[in-house]
Amino acid sequence: MPSKTPLYIGKRLHLARKRSGLTQGEVAKQANTNVNYYAKLERGESVPSLKMLEKIVKVLSIKSSDVLPF
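Predicted structure:
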């Protein structure tokens, strides 16, 4: 059975980004990553490394616990 963690993280990132008023492109640029990769994260198709997650939560001004299901 596949893990639901990537989908959970993706949904939480999406909600946080919408609340911040940023586009996927803006988040990706500020986190120094590719917009296609960031979009995959939001769709739950990929899981960010801890380093990338740290960059993204800083851009979104949230805590990692706001995104992680544990």
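Summary: The chain has four helices and no strands.
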